[in-house]
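INFO batch 0412 | record 1 of 1 | parsing
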Amino acid sequence: LMMGVIVYTFWAVYQFTKNKRSGWPYALASIGILLIVFLVVNLQYFGVIKRQELILTLGYIIFFFLQALILAFRFQFLLKEAKEAAIQALRAKTDFLSTMSHEIRTPLNSVIGISHILLHEKPRPDQKKNLNTLLFSAKNLLNIVNDILDFNKIEAGKLNLEIIPTQLGQLLQNVTDGWQVAAKEKQLSLE
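INFO prediction complete | emitting tokens
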């Protein structure tokens, strides 16, 4: 049985070394130590040498230490692969968001442009209010798309912040107008 294990060990070491798997030098050293332990055990068994407890104990300790190093190298290799996969997934997500954001911006700019044109053609007061709500909602959606692009810029470290004046009253009125349709469908009053 031991001879079969030794032959298998040599074959495994050959395969391990040939494929240059992570930690292969430690595997080779640990197998060498194990073969020495096997040799000492066999020589003791056949009475060629006296019991060598110190050699056997050290051999086992070194063998298990080297096996722990092999596991550490395999774990490190798996972590490196997982990190590369995460980076690739992040890159794919960023590319997807950038592409979709740009694709959504094109029709939104058309909606905003047509809303401006319709507002300049002197619509009725009720149409004007609806067009203003449509224009605000389209601009709001465009801002959301721009925020997605800004998020990608934040991840890339390329975001520049700016301070601009805002008319809070007009903003709140536009938000309220944007939600009027949903409120009416639910028979609610929104002010």
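INFO post-check: Helices lie at 2-18, 24-45, 53-120, 125-156, 168-185.
INFO record closed
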